[in-house]
Amino acid sequence: MLIRLITVISLILFMLLMISGIQIEVALYRSMVVFMVLFAVVYLTIFFLNILRDNEKREHMTVTDGGNQKNENKG
């Protein structure tokens, strides 16, 4: 879904650049750069969100494990 949205944005940019009278090579280059930048931003965002989610799961697991060990030692 995100790749389609990025593709549509790039194609709309290409169309607008062509309508404004820019040469086809320049318009194609600019729309490809926009596509690559948007794709990289989305990819990195998903990557970092997964890292944060994994860290939160690990911290939650260590907190609950630590609490269970203290209860077992007392009993």
In total, the number of domains comes to: 1
How many runs of DSSP E, i.e. beta strands?
0
What is the residue-averaged pLDDT?
A: 86
Number of helices: 2
**Helix and strand sequence:** HH
Amino-to-carboxy terminus distance:
53 Å
Write structural notes for this entry.
- With 75 residues, the protein is mainly alpha-helical.
- It contains two helices and no strands.
- It is rod-shaped and about 65 Å long.
Keywords:
75 residues, mainly alpha, 92% helix
How would you summarize what this structure contains?
With 75 residues, the protein is mainly α. The protein is 92% helix and 0% strand.
Helix-strand blueprint:
Elements: H1 2-19, H2 24-74
Helix pairs in contact: 1-2
